Amino acid sequence: MRISAVLGIYGSLQVLHETREEVMEWLQASHGAAPYNGRAPIALMATGSLEDLMAVRSFLAAAQQGAYMPPNETDKGFTPYRDEDIHWS
């Protein structure tokens, strides 16, 4: 199970981040959201407990579905389209 959790974490990080540097930054930064409670994800993973690995895995799986993660640069300040903004040709 631990190998599966680690591989799932790895896969999710590849989807959510474009570069290795972004992955490492995310892993090493402290996060206020549960399950981290101010700790870095790598610290939680380093405990080696299946529960902690699955907590990180579940968080990332939810992030892939749009939960938890802040918007990227493209989406910051996005205003919804209005009907008059849509032009059919």
Poorly predicted tracts of residues:
none
**Mind telling me the C-alpha Rg?**
17 Å
Order of helices and strands: HHHH
Average per-residue pLDDT, rounded, comes to 90
Span between termini: 53 Å
Tally of strands: 0
- Residue share in helices? 40-55%
What is the overall shape? elongated
Largest sheet: none
Q: In percent terms, what proportion of residues is strand?
A: under 5%
Q: Which structural class matches the secondary elements? A: mainly alpha
Protein name: DUF2384 domain-containing protein
Describe the structure.
51% of the residues lie in helices and 0% in strands. The chain is mostly helical. Helix 1 (2-16) packs parallel to helix 4. It is elongated and about 55 Å long. This is DUF2384 domain-containing protein. It comes from Microvirga brassicacearum.
Summarize the structure.
The chain has helices at residues 2-16, 20-28, 41-46, 50-64. It is mostly helical. It has one domain.
What is the element layout, followed by pairings?
Elements: H1 2-16, H2 20-28, H3 41-46, H4 50-64
Helix pairs in contact: 1-4
Quickly list its features.
mainly alpha, DUF2384 domain-containing protein
